[in-house]
Here is the input.
Amino acid sequence: MNTRRRHILSGYSWLMLVFLYLPIAILVLYSFNDSRINAVWSGFTWKWYISLFDNRQVMQALANSLTIGVISSILATVLGTAASLAIKHYSLKWRNIVNGLIYLPIVIPEIMMGLALLVLFSQIHMELGKATLIMAHVTFSMPYVMVIISGRLADMGKDLEEAAQDLGATPWETLRYVTLPLIMPGIVAGFLMSFTLSLDDFIISFFVAGPNSTTLPLYIYGLVKRGVSPEVNALSTLLIVSTVLLVIVAELFRRKDSKTITY
Amino acid sequence: MKTIIHLDTIEKQFAGNVVVPPLSLSIEEGEFLTLLGPSGCGKTTLLRMIAGFEEQTSGEIYLDEKLLSHIPPYQRDMNMVFQQYALFPHMTVEQNILFGLKMKKVSTAEQKKRLEEVLQYVQLTELRSRTPKQLSGGQQQRVAIARAIINNPRVLLLDEPLGALDYQLRKSLQLELKNLQKNLGITFIYVTHDQEEAMAMSDRIAVMNKGRIEQIASPAEIYNTPQTLFVATFIGENNIFRDGGTITAVRPEKIKLYQRGEQTDKHKKTGRITDVVFLGNLRKLYIRLDSRDMTVMAHQYAGDGLDWQVDNHVAIGWAQTDEVILPC
Amino acid sequence: MLNKKPVKLLALPAIVWMGALFVLPMLLIAALSFLKRGTYGQVVYEFTLNNYIRIWDPLYGQIFWDTLVVAVLTTLLSILSGYPLAYYISRLEPSKQKIWLLLVMIPFWINFLVRSYAWVIILRSQGVINTMLQSMGIISEPLPLLYNSGSVLLGMVYTLVPFMVLPIYVSLEQMDRRKLEAAYDLGATPWKAFWHVTLPMTKTGVVTGSILVFVSSIGMFVVPDVMGGAKSALIGNVIQNQFLSARDWPFGSALSIVLMLLSMLLILLYFRATKASESKEGAV
Here is the structure.
């Protein structure tokens, strides 16, 4: 590749980054804009954030999001970790079948999953609310947990588990003293990923939420439909900041894992 | 000598493919037995069946005359040294070595005592609180051995334990391992594809090919009187002469060279030297036979006074006691 | 092996969970699509094919067509804009690659809704661009930048392009560089080498990325909802509407089944097409 071509490519790539980040940056910037009415900058303020904390609906939505996020990610992580540990021991045929079942939600349009769950809950007369949201969130985040943990387990290979058994550890002792400590960074990363997915989810939650279980994205949607306002900017900024932090921390855990394994 | 492990017509199939056809083998207490063969010959599968990681499709395994077949690996009184060592990366050297005793709920005082002994023995006392990735390959190998022998196993299984190390280190560790085995008196079952390693360490070698044991004997016997064509060609170099229904093998160092017309033994053939390869203490001569499409190898040692050159026409022969007749 | 049996059972809760909350609901939708709707929006348990017949109405045909056009355009634009970026990242030194990948990944995790909304701030008539242009005196009336099919397309590419960059990057990373060197060695120009060596060898990445982008865009309703006008409704919006406002669940189910079959069919065709061109190249 000659230098000129390299410069064009690098310039283009930086432009793509600008394209990806500029709208987000503008959104964040305007959450600090003193003026309510238009896009003109009229001074820095924290007041939209302060007003959020005084808004009972916002606080309720935040509390809902956090409750649903924590419970659903714990469930998804426990179910996903257990399944990954088991599937490793399956024959190739069964592994493909079970993986197919569990990974399918990743390639099905989200809207279908949302309405399918809505139909299910209405058929079994389950009232829409936090419980239905938690169940839905576990369903869509479990595959992601499994992708991460299965990857860690594959990197680990079977040698270490065999070595433990060879030294007298029963299968459960092997799990406790060798496998779990070694995949722990993956489990933490999986938990953080599923928490992020839950905190962020709009489409599926849109179908299965009840009147008293509004989450942050659902609340933001309600505001967005009414138009641009500095409160939405501030609330969106909070959601963005927490997502970015969660993703970075999860990524650090995931990378830490691979460092421990390859020595 | 007492039999410690007995394999009674064990067979292994993977998804209908026979990897190890029915095979019986007795291993004696305190011996250093090597399973030697090319990759894919079934030697690792055999070792893993003894360890309990693979279940045989049929047949039985006995340890000290007790049936071992359906006992899981963690209840078998033997330990394994893995090819890549399989040290626990999240534990220190000390924790790695103590793992087996902890699992067997040995008292803390006993653990401490045996740990010190073993650390001393493998010279790892100073490195005890390091983690595996802070160690060199040779040091990791010592930890793997220490972690196994601290349990005083009846049998130590070693799966190409030197395979990951460089040539020099491998050489010196071969001797160390052999001495370790002598001093501890533990039975070693050692898997390798390196014949030199097998020769240097073993009491007996089982040469394996396509899941079968071709021959099991002392290194000298394997070398001097191979029983099959595979053993004759896999171990060391050999000249194979096919005459009608018989196959005759003669080692290159047993081939004698003469000037044309000189008085020789009855196995006289003539040919032309095509290549001379100088290897320090010996020279390898390649002789193209006149009578057939075959190249014979002969070794000439330094100081025998003869100076053969390429294109010399020579006669070759050997003593009848130096030839091995092989079954077809 | 016997001693591994208890471990194997650990997958059971997850399998039961996915069966009950994923497979079963999907089957319910399929069943629902053959039932009738009552006067008050309830489901009447009688078999009918009417829901599928109704889809042939030109009104829905048009929307399906629009959805496909938007999805295909989104996929194409994502390939065009994502490939060079992925290529650039794969040529960086490893430590920089990690940072760039993280930078591409972060927007992908940020909420769709929030990211579409960010564009509304920029594009609306009192938005950043219009305000700026007006204050500079370039325009007197705000430009209609939002609520049209162009803005929907922009929003779709914006939200989905990370899906394209990551798989292409992976396939570029796994590519055997020696083949490229061999091409140069044989006198290929950089452009020819790219066209005949790099591109065919990274086809897997392009295919994977395309499927991810296509599947996500075909069922998308957030972006058109936030950035599009009444005329730019896509099939996702219609389905959403059938379930939440019109309360015609059987018809909504039929629409979504057709949507799913259509997207599977197109993915299959796409697979076939790329496979076919691959074997053609193999023969050359």
The radius of gyration of chain C is 24 Å. The longest helix of chain C spans residues 249-283.
